[in-house]
Amino acid sequence: MQQTLIYSSPQNEFTDLSILQIQTEALKAIHDYLYEQKLIQLMPVMLSPITDPLNHETSDARINYFGQELQLTKSMIFHKQLAIASCTTKGIYIMSPNVRLEKPLKRDSGRHLIEFSQVDIELREVKALKFMELLEGLIISIIVRVKEKCTKELKSLGVSLRIPKRPFKIFSSEELKKKYGEDFEKETSLKEIDPFWITDYQREFYDKEDPKRPGHYLNYDLIYPEGFGEALSGGERDFKYEILLRKIKERYQNPDVFKFYLDKAKEGKLVASAGGGLGIERLVRFLTKIPHIRDVSPFSKVPGEYYQI
Ligand code: AMP
Ligand code: MG
After folding, report:
1. Which helix (H) or strand (E) holds 263?
2. Which ligand is nearest the CA of 103, by number?
3. Which of 13, 119, 273, 303 is 20 to 30 A from 291 (CA-CA)?
4. pLDDT value at residue 1
5. What's the CA gap between 13 and 298, in Å, rounded?
6. Are 121 and 275 in contact (CB under 8 A)?
7. Whose CA is nearest to atom 6 of ligand 1?
8. Distance from C-alpha of 89 to C-alpha of 37, rounded to nearest angstrom
9. In the chain, which residues have pLDDT < 70?
10. Strands (E), 205-272
11. Could you tell me the distance, in angstroms and rounded to a whole number, from the CA of residue 2 to the centre of ligand 2?
């Protein structure tokens, strides 16, 4: 009999090969699409003196390298901003492995791991809508490819995939909050049948504040339908020194930590950009309709568990 399960770990025992075949096609679709869009691929940075402060609490994964403190990468936001500013390429992307030591209470969310990968993209000197357009094309090309190449695997998982209609719907977080309260993201995800955008979240200092509407942000999340929730977060970026410094202070973060990056901004060496990161394991979970992200990859690490290889 053909073996259809691959060794995983004592936590989730085995992973269905159909899921990994779908992941393989999805990754190929991502590379092909971004290549056609003429984006340049960078290799991932896994250790860095600074990393994404995030807008929720995680414990930092720090190591001491012969006296220098480095952190495991939570995202490559600062590297992306520095790289995109330094040359006139249209855009860059990285298949970026991230370590985020999420709180154990996220164990049952079904969509959190403590290590995961995202395709992290940044486009030079564009507005939010340009990035959103590129992303919609990316999502559709992934779904089209998986439908075409993985008929057998989708059938064995009992999944039928819908090709979303473009443009994806756009909601503001403010309007959804009025309608559904604090759980607006989840409620809307349960109602919609295609991926959609939610804009204007109050979060990290590098997301661009709307100069016309102080306190509002030119950022966005892409949300999967059917209750699968967040797929991507991103935004236009602030890049001017005074604005970045003010926003760091407003968040009670320490500007000294970001000195090298802030110095670049002060020297006028950052530029406008827009980007975002699409989580790979969450994408595969959505494509395969697997309830818990744990079961999408071998060796997955769900928050708050004891890990064995
Ligand atoms: P963020 O910019 O923090 O929203 O991260 C970018 C994307 O990475 C998210 O939209 C998710 O798809 C994915 N992601 C973030 N945190 C996790 C996590 N703990 N486990 C799995 N995927 C994650
Ligand atoms: Mg997010």
Report:
1. helix 259-266
2. 1
3. 119
4. 42
5. 8
6. yes
7. 277
8. 11
9. 1-3
10. 219-224, 229-236
11. 39
Ramachandran angles phi, psi of 15, nearest 5°: -115, 140
- Residue reference for tokens 């901004």: 265
Dig out the tokens for 76 from the structure.
């490559």
Q: Is the pTM of the predicted complex or chain greater than 0.85? A: yes
Specify the residue for token string 């394991």: 281
The beta-strand segments (E) located in the chain are 5-7, 14-16, 40-42, 47-48, 62-65, 68-72, 91-99, 115-124, 170-172, 196-199, 219-224, 229-236, 273-279
Q: Is 282 exposed, middle or buried (0-12, 13-18, 19+ CB in 10 A)?
A: buried
User: By three-state DSSP, how is residue 243 classified?
Assistant: helix
CB contact at 8 A, 255 and 290: no
Dihedrals phi, psi of 234, to nearest 5 degrees:
-170, -170
Residues 6+ apart with CB under 8 A from 43: 94
> Domains of the chain by range and CATH?
5-295 (3.30.930.10)
pLDDT of residue 238: 98
Q: What is the helix (H) or strand (E) element at residue 146, kind and residue range?
A: helix 128-149
Residue 5: φ, ψ to 5°: -120, 145
Q: Choose one of 73, 93, 230 to mutate for the ligand 1 pocket test, by most ligand atoms within 8 angstroms of C-beta.
A: 230
3-class secondary-structure state, position 247: helix
Do you know the residue count of the chain? 309
- Name the closest ligand to CA 120: 1
Two tokens at 38? 């003429």
| Four-residue CA torsion sign, 56, 61, 235, 213 | positive
> For residue range 92-132, what is the model confidence (pLDDT) as tens digits?
999 999 999 999 999 999 999 999 999 999 999 999 999 99
